[in-house]
């Protein structure tokens, strides 16, 4: 479907339109940066060594959750609410992050959240989360969501519908930021 161009009527409309263009430019820049990073890391092979004694294996942070999309999770067309998927993603990512901080992680930001395709009532959504990296006071958790209808479930043919990177902090009883351990991918 080809959409009609936007008619900018007021100064406020012009500002919103300009900001939307800038947000799109930044989003596309992130995608290109991420693709370049993935290509570089695959070319480097085993250049980096993660054999530190105190590093925690990311295998310990893997979390999988399965949700059944019910009518209360969907709009009048039967498509799953995006906010519902985001809430489930935040839950599974929070559990993954908590395995490192031994506390309740606090969501700081969500990056590169993408809707790759729809899901509908009756689909089973499989959420996979794992810690990608830790920084001194924050942790990045990657979440991938795959959807299956009944036939796809039997054939093990997933539809990749969402991905995101969630950044968490954790604080102690005094409100001070906790340090995260180094990880070994």
UniProtKB/TrEMBL annotation:
Gene3D superfamilies: Hotdog Thioesterase (3.10.129.10)
Pathway connected to this protein: Lipid metabolism; fatty acid metabolism
UniProt keywords, alphabetically: Cytoplasm, Fatty acid metabolism, Hydrolase, Lipid metabolism, Repeat, Serine esterase
Stretches that traverse the bilayer: none
First-listed, main subcellular location of the protein, grouped into a coarse class: cytoplasm
Superkingdom, natural source: Eukaryota
Reaction(s) catalysed by this chain's protein: butanoyl-CoA + H2O = butanoate + CoA + H(+)
Record localization: Cytoplasm
Molecular function terms, GO-annotated: acetyl-CoA hydrolase activity; carboxylic ester hydrolase activity
One Pfam match: 4HBT
Domain HotDog ACOT-type: 59-174
GO BP: acetyl-CoA metabolic process; fatty acid metabolic process
GO CC terms of this entry: cytosol
PANTHER family tied to this protein: ACETYL-COENZYME A THIOESTERASE (PTHR11049:SF3), ACYL COENZYME A THIOESTER HYDROLASE (PTHR11049)
The protein, known as: ACO12 thioesterase
Source organism (scientific name): Rhinopomastus cyanomelas (Common scimitarbill)
